[in-house]
Amino acid sequence: MIEVSNISKQVSTTEGTLNILHEINLSLASGESLAIVGPSGSGKSTLLGILAGLDLPTAGSVSLNGEDITAMDEEGRATVRAGHVGFVFQSFHLLPGLTALENVALPLELQGDKDALKTAAYYLKRVGLEHRTTHYPRQLSGGEQQRVAVARAFACRPTILFADEPTGNLDTGTGEKINDLLFDLNKEEGTTLVLVTHEHNLAARCGQRLVLAAGRQVDQTAPKKKAVVKKTVAKRAAVKKASVKKTVIPKAKVKAKTRAKPKTVAKAKAKPKATPKPKAAPKPTAAPKSKAQGSKR
Amino acid sequence: MQALKMLLRTWRGGQLGLIVWSLVLAVSVVTSVSLLAERIERALTAESSAFLAADLVVRSNKPTPQAWITEAGLQGVETSQMVSFASMVYHQSDMHLASIKAVQSNYPLRGLIKRSTTPFTFDESLIEAVNYGPAPGETWVDARLLPLLNIELGDNIELGDTILKVTQIIVEEPDGGSYSFFGARVLMNWGDVAAAGIVQPGSRVTYKYLMASGADQNAFTGYSDWLKDQLSIHDRLITPDEAQASIASTMDRGRRFLLLAGSIGVVLAGIALALASHHFAAGQTQQVALLKSWGIPASRVRSLYLQQSLWLGVGGSLVGLSVGYGFSELLISIVREWLPIALPNAGIRPWITGMATGLLCLGGFTLPALWHLPAQPPLAVLRQDIQVAPVSSAIRGAFGIAAVAGLLLWYSNSVYLSLAILAGFALTALATVIIGLAMLRLGKNYGQRLGSIWRLALNNLWRRRSQSLIQMVGFSGAIALLMIMVVVRTSLIDEWRFQLAEDAPNHFLVNVAPYELDGVRDLVNAQNLETAGWYAMVRGRMTAINGQPITEAQKDSHESFRRELNLSWTAELPDGNKITEGQWWGEVDSATTIAPVSLEDEIAEELGLKLGDRITFSVGGLIFESEVVNTRTLNWDNMTPNFYFLFPEGLLEEYPRTSMTSLYIPPKQKLLVNDLLRKYPTVQVIELDKIIDRIRTIVSQVTRGLEIMTLLILSCGVLVMFAAVSLSMSERLQESAILRTLGSSRRLILGIQLVEFSTLGIMAGLLAAIGAEAAVVMLQYFMFDLPLALHPWIWVTGPIAGGVLVGALGVGYSRKAVVQPPLEVLKSL
């Protein structure tokens, strides 16, 4: 699903060239979840942006569903995003002039979905906001706004969901609820999840973990064993089947479901070549400074 | 439809308020002024025609050729004839030299005659308006004639060989100024002229041939063109504009002011739109990044915003057209009183102008501000420091100026007006950028020595200097344009009031003999009336030019060559006169054989005379030669005696002379004229009271209309200031909220806002005076024929008004930073 090969990112500043990312490699199978962790300024969001096709690396390549997005122009990447990608942001990014329902429906309307409002209503109900559909963002709490954002992201039936510090602006309790929602929906929809987080327990819920320090890949948790993977995949399929029977799914979603079904599980790629200090490296990620505050990365 | 949906949602969210109101205001100002100006133009044409009692007149000393009347009949043009002359009228032993006008039954072709059976009445209920003249055997007379001949209504008077029955009193005729002679007016039927036997070959009469358009305007135009080729040197074509130059001049000035006000309103609304669009675009960058993160390509983003702009332009323009129509109806209801006829419809041009204004404003001000949005990188959803740069200020400014210039030219159809406004605004903007930056720096440096509020405020202005300069350009531009309008309006109204003061002279007394002068003076003084001074003159005739006797051809070409002229003398250049060529004379030797003469410049041109030409005059048979030493312009509107030919003192005093003056006679003392004529029957009285009253009424109504337009334009100015204030508001509110969380008092925070905005306003007001003064000078000279003058008061009131207005707006807007809890303020931003 996601194949990252030796991507690096450099930017020119007044003080010279700045290496934001250095030879990052990863592989993520369809349906898996990846947490990108690291201290502020380690390049997490930069990496997320590159993976999502929002930015281009200086070197290396990224493939989403077998398509090399780094070889595409912005129009091409936009097409890939339209077909496959969803986002949840730390600052929610809801449009203040639209109601909750309209915020969720907007990306669907822009894609020409005639059942956009119906789909939006379904997902708002799914996140527990069926009574707040006509409310504007300013009338919603932070947690409610993020739930709307989550509903919006999943309403587009993405194959990959990128979340940038989804609970960064929320208190612990609310954040936990959002995390639960995120993973529940992720499980139901079979979406591949990539999230950037400071939170240790959120990162622990993901199948893979990529640790960055000063733009370098410090650690990547090995993928689960094959048998476990197969079981997980089978269980997921069963859950999905059950959820398809139970819930009312608008027509458009059926098509998307067919398209998104993964056939095989991609294998984990080889580790990065030059990692002189895998164990001796300090564990900056093991001690997140604070959970809720700060948006620096 | 997706674009329309997005637009409606954005409107609902309150982000489009300023843009929409700016657009609506621009269109409504243009539409209301265009509708009003167009309808006034049409009404004025009709009114002017009423002053002629026709659409076109030929005046001649010969009867109208039958061929003209026949051709008119074939073209469907309505015609009428009349003849004017002076004649004695008698009743028993009383007599009077009256001004007679004989008209056909279809007179007047335009306008109405007001008549009454009650002499000297002002009661409208006793006055009747009719569109026909007296029947054969009847006559309608000036009320003054009754005491002069000791008659009453129903009595007969003798005119030549005929007897006419006095049946009505003339209150007002549409072409009331058309009498050529100065006795009491007598209106009679055309058919009675032959029976009177007065008009003989060689009689001094004036014929008028009146024409009016029928249903086919093109046929009338064709006939007029044909007629022009038939005219001889005896004939003079008179158009409606020439008929009553004073009223036409007044209305023309009023119409130009309306155009000026409308133009300024458009420019102000355009500035507001530009500022509002800039502010709106800044708030759209995150939304665009979000759309692009969802995979919406840049081309689709551009298409969405273009469609939204189009919907906005059309929708806003339609609302603006409706508001403009409502406003024009309000204005028309105010000015309707002086319009004797129903206002014609305006036609389609104002509507097209309004709609085009909306679309042009959008294209020139809004689209450039939004143009960069599709290039916003999607990565901005993750990194808010990434922003696509807007189109450069220079390019946006160029688009804005092009839009404004195009709008001004199309709307006003006047290069001078457009140039004046653009020059005023450009000068103000330039001064703001250059001098404004220096002022901000000075303020920052000086502020270090002041208290904390001043120090912080002036520092903030410097820190945000780019934004401060943009705001200052907006403020100073608005203040400059408003000042231009107020100054011109005040000058216009002052000029009218001066010319048409309640006690402005409304009668001229002419041909007062030296031995009558004291007696006339005493008669006037006995009524407690004051004259505008007595002016002596002699009657003389030109006999030769540069030694060549005046030819018959010259006599036929201009009446000044064939009749006696009024020649007067003065040592000083009279008030209201201005030298255009040559020099005024100093001391002149009375023994000189060649007298210097000063000519009015238009008569000099008509007579083909220039500096250095020698004119030979005959005064009472005595011949003397003169040389043209200067030409001058006159002010005909000040109702004081003016002379075409002036000589120095000491040269003509020995010739037989008469005196003239002008004075104000109130309506209740009108019979002084009768007393005067009874005692001094050779004195001529020119009555202008009716026409002045009419002008005064028109001016007062037009003035009220101008006041309302001024209010509308002021609201445009306030909108601009509001838009400029809102530019920096979110940043200011954020800062203020943070300061409050750190424990700053409300006094400190509001004080900082007050000092910042007031300082901006004062600086802007001062800079605005530069551009305003320059523009007003241009407008006064080229557009309004007003005397050139500087206006020191705008250098004081501009900064004060700017400081107060901008300060109040800024503090009012930022109050929520101290009223609401800081966290609420921060969350809302």
Polypeptide structure, described:
The complex is a heterodimer of chains A (297) and B (829). Chain A is built from nine helices and ten strands. With 297 residues, chain A is α/β, with parallel strands linked by helices. Chain A has one domain: P-loop containing nucleotide triphosphate hydrolases (Rossmann fold, 3-Layer(aba) Sandwich), CATH 3.40.50.300. In chain A, the strands form two sheets. Chain A has a six-stranded mixed β-sheet. The longest helix of chain A is centred in the C-terminal third of the chain and has 21 residues, at 226-246. Residues 223-233 and 239-297 of chain A have low confidence and may be disordered. With 829 residues, chain B is of the alpha+beta class. Chain B folds into four domains: 1-13 and 24-53 and 251-413, no CATH class; 56-239, no CATH class; 431-502 and 688-829, no CATH class; 531-663, no CATH class. Chain B is 54% helix and 17% strand. Chain B has 25 helices and 22 strands. A six-stranded mixed beta barrel of chain B has the order 2-3-9-6-8-7. In chain B, strands 13-15-20-17-19-18 form a six-stranded mixed β-barrel. In chain B, α11 runs antiparallel to α12 (393-412), α13 (415-447) packs across α14 and α15 packs across α22. Chain A binds chain B through residues 45, 48-49, 52, 54-55, 74-75, 78-83, 85, 87, 89, 93, 95-98, 102, 107, 109-111, 136, 138, 156, 164, and chain B through 2, 5, 9-10, 12-15, 286-287, 290-300, 377-379, 381-383, 827-828.
N- to C-terminal distance of chain A: 26 Å
Helicity level of chain B? 40-55%
What is the SS-derived class of chain A? alpha/beta
Mean pLDDT of chain A: 77
Number of strands of chain B: 22
Net shape of chain A = globular
- The proportion of residues forming helix of chain A, as a percent range, comes to 25-40%
The helix/strand order of chain A is EEEHEEHEHHHEHEHEEHH
Largest contact between chains? A-B, 31 and 29 residues
- Compute the separation of the termini of chain B in Å: 30 Å
